[in-house]
Design a protein that fits this description.
Elements: E1 15-20, E2 25-29, E3 35-36, H1 45-53, H2 62-76, E4 84-88, H3 96-101, E5 106-110, E6 125-131, H4 140-149, E7 151-160, E8 183-184, H5 187-196, E9 200-204, E10 208-212, E11 219-220
Parallel strand pairs: 4-5, 4-6, 6-7, 9-11
Antiparallel strand pairs: 1-2, 2-3, 3-8, 7-10, 9-10
């Protein structure tokens, strides 16, 4: 088995070439339908951080806050007052954390480049947020398993990532053109994660999902 062709999410060896150009090859998993970029094509840490340093996610930008409201609005309905959140992959300009703190929630930050607070992995949280993060993960299987393990009973995992749907023409899809985007999720991929973690799944639009591990089996779209 070629380790580089093994699915980075479910570990299946049943993958095939999905798309290629002169620079990279993308593979697709038959089991969980993850589309991913093999690790030999990933940026090194220095180049990856240089790309992230270009991001201009200003917490005072109303447009950016409106973008984050896609996950904030449905999530806030499911969390109790004064809950604890882990904002995983917060980036250089944390904003969702400020929105949540304004509602009275306690928020811890983690980002491997900008808030490398590894002590957060010793706590448990009422909910966890990961906005525009999953597509960057070189080892999504490990990271997502770890996030689920950090949830308290009746916890919620909220994620934002642009879903790969049957309407997407991958060759021209803007989302793949960011070289730090190395894995892409479809509805089937999210359903795989929900089933694996015995979670109810709620999908909102084409870029947001909530997982409820204490409510098994249901998919709401």
């Amino acid at each position: 088995m070629n380790q580089d062709s093994t699915c980075v999410l479910c570990g299946s060896s049943q993958t095939q070439l999905y798309y290629s150009n002169e620079n990279v090859n993308y593979l697709r998993c038959f089991e969980c339908e993850m589309v991913f970029l093999p690790k030999r094509f990933h940026l090194n840490n220095i180049d990856e951080k240089s790309r992230y340093d270009l991001h201009q996610n200003d917490s005072k930008n109303t447009g950016y806050r409106q973008f984050l409201s896609t996950v904030f609005d449905p999530l806030i309905k499911h969390v109790q007052p004064n809950s604890t959140d882990l904002n995983f992959g917060c980036g250089p300009g944390p904003t969702l954390s400020l929105m949540l703190e304004s509602e009275g929630h306690e928020v811890d930050l983690f980002d491997k480049y900008y808030a490398n607070n590894v002590q957060v992995f010793e706590r448990k949280y009422d909910f966890i947020t990961a906005t525009e993060v999953l597509e960057h993960l070189s080892n999504p299987r490990f990271e997502i398993d770890r996030l689920f393990s950090l949830l308290n009973p009746k916890g919620v995992l909220a994620v934002m990532t642009q879903l790969l749907t049957n309407k997407v023409i991958f060759s021209t899809w803007y989302y793949k053109n960011d070289p730090t985007h190395v894995c892409f999720f479809s509805q089937k991929t999210l359903e795989y994660l929900a089933q694996k973690n015995n979670a109810k799944l709620e999908i909102i639009g084409d870029n947001t999902a909530l997982f409820f591990p204490s409510q098994q089996g249901e998919v709401v779209i």
